[in-house]
Amino acid sequence: MSKKVTMDNKLAFVRTEDAPILPPPASEAGITGWLYQNIFASMSDFSSAGASIRSVLMGLFSFGLLYVGITQLWGLLDFAIFSAVWSDPDGLKREACWTVEQGGQLPAGWHAACWPFIAAKLKFLTYGAYPADELWRVNLAGFVGLVGLVYVLIEGLPARRHVGILMLTIYPLMAFILLTGGNLDVDYGNVGLYVLISLGLITMARMGAAGRFGSSFQDLSGIFSVAGWLLIVYAVILSVVGVDTSLEPVDTRDWGGLLITLVVAITGIVASLPLGILLALGRRSNMPVTRLICTIFIEFWRGVPLITVLFMASVMLPLFLPEGVNFDNLLRALIGVMLFSAAYMAEVVRGGLQAIDKGQYEGADAVGLSYWQSMRLIILPQALTHVIPGIVNTFIGLFKDTTLVSIVGIFDLLGGVQSTLADAAWSTPVQGLTGYLFVSVIFFIFCFGMSRYSIYMERKLSRGRSH
Amino acid sequence: MKKLTFAIAGVAAVAFAASANAATLDDVKAKGFVQCGVSQGLPGFSNADDSGNWAGIDVDMCRAVAAAIFGDGNAVKFTPLSAKQRFTALASGEVDILSRNTTWTMTRDTQLGLNFAGVNYYDGQGMMVPVDLGVSSATELDGANICTNTGTTTELNITDYFREKGMSFNLVAFEKADEVVAAYDAGRCDVYTTDRSGLAAQRTKLTNPDAHVVLPEIISKEPLGPVVRQGDDQWFNIVRWTLNALINAEEMGITADNAAARLGGTTNPAIKRLLGGEGSFGEELGLSNDWALNAIQAVGNYGESYEANVGPNTPLKLDRGVNQLWSKGGILYAAPIR
Question: Measured between alpha carbons, how far is residue B124 from residues A316, B244, B258 in Å?
Answer without folding.
Answer: 31, 22, 33
